[in-house]
Structures are given as C-alpha cells and as structure tokens.
Amino acid sequence: QVQLVESGGGLVQAGGSLRLSCAASGRTFSTYAMGWFRQAPGKEREFVAAINWSGSITYYADSVKGRFTISRDNAKNTLYLQMGSLKPEDTAVYYCAAGSQNYPIRTMTSTDKYYYWGQGTQVTVSS
Hints:
This protein is mainly beta. Helices cover 0% and strands 48% of the residues. The strands form two sheets. Strands 2, 4, 5, 6, 9, 10 and 11 form a seven-stranded mixed sheet that branches. It has a four-stranded antiparallel sheet with strand order 1-3-8-7, with no helix packed on it.
C-alpha cells in the first residue's frame, strides 16, 4: 500500500509559478506510474499529467502542455509538478495518484487506472 501527501499549493497571481510535491510512503513508490489530477468546484476531476516508473516517459493534458512539468525522484519517494505561466482557470484542488504500470503512460488519463490518491492541495490563481 502507498500513502500519498501533497504539498506546495497556495495563492499565486496569474503568470506566476508553483511547485507541488507529493510524498509517498512505503518502499514500492518506484513500481507505480504516477499522475496529477485536478478538480475545480462543480467540475469533474480531470487529468493533468502522468509519468512512468522511471521518469523517462511523461504525458500531459493539452491544457497544461508547455506550462507544467511532471517529474519524480524515486530515491526520495517524491513526485513533483512544476507549474508555470499559471492562469485563473488552473485554480483547483490538485491530487497526486499512484497507478498501474501495465498501461502506456499516454492512456493513464482516467481515474480508474489509479489505485491510491492523496488528499489534495489547493491552488488558487488570481487574475
């Protein structure tokens, strides 16, 4: 089992940057594909980015491509999301998740491919 704890959220002005972290417990972090999702009020949870077990393959939602970077440090059991050029529409609760290694990373866009979830961290972008 993996426990996930996000941090790094906050209030930032449009055009600014934030880095989210997701700390994982347990010694099996490196065996999971990892993803970031977000959920705005009144909306469904949506895919943001995913990364394979080694960090060599990444995939992004079109809405964040070129602005966000997902990465991981398996030695530190930590997942990251570097967010830049933030927009008000990026405002949401951001969740990290650990999922199956059995699918291509480009298909890890649905919540049902993930086994474990963090509690989320709020990101608010002011205009």
